[in-house]
What we know:
alpha+beta; 4 helices; 11 strands; 214 residues; 43% strand; disordered N terminus; elongated
Amino acid sequence: MTPVLPPEPHSNRLKRRGVAGLCLALCLGSGLALTGWRANAQTVSPSQATQALVPAQSEITFVARQLGVPLDGRFKRFEAQLAFDPKQVARSHIALGIDLGSVSMNPDADVELVKPEWFNAGKFPKASFQSSAIKALGAGRYEVRGQLTIKGKAQALLVPVQLSQSKGLTTATGAFALKRLDFKVGDGEWSDVSLVGNEVQVRFKLTFTGVPPL
Length: 214
């Protein structure tokens, strides 16, 4: 059983752990509920079933603020499943799962962010996002509606996405803002938004093989 240490002075904890707080909100929120995706897989064509994420050319990053200072972070491990047909956008789906234990900001923050008051990665190892509707806006632009779940808290999310294609690969890029307190990320004393900002900016680049020409 891990011993419980007495609480540190608030100022020391802020220096050591404050960075961690910023990241929490990110959960890119873009996690994909893979179980839900599989439930919808029967509606996709064989060509869609071959679509796959290229991890080496994909990234999920975020920017949080501590005492007004921006801090950059990223998630090193995530997975995505896509069933996308440009001719049948309404029947397309995307799902994303993010390993919360892979959060990376700096050594001290990385240790703190997985703890219960932040991501609580031991109990909630992944954030998930499951699309419910995709709408084409023209010129490779889309709106993806769905549900983002972090620490057991679900919120509706609207994500703008830009698609581009080159050399057989399709890349989806976009950005959106999350409020960490909607998911109880940075709970307790860290709920003070004057220390760690409530809003977190999330950016993503997801590259896939097997997507038909747009």
